[in-house]
Amino acid sequence: MTEALTFRPVDITNYYPVMKLEMVPGQEKFLDSNAWPLAEATYVAGLTPEAVYLDDTLIGLVSWGPYYPNYGYEEAPKAGSYIIDHIMIAAPWQGRGLGRRVTTMLLEKLRALPDCQRIVLMLDPENTVAERLYRSLGFNQFGVTHESDRLMAFDVEARA
Question: Which residues does 44 contact at the CB level (< 8 Å), separation at least 6?
Answer without folding.
Answer: 65, 68, 73
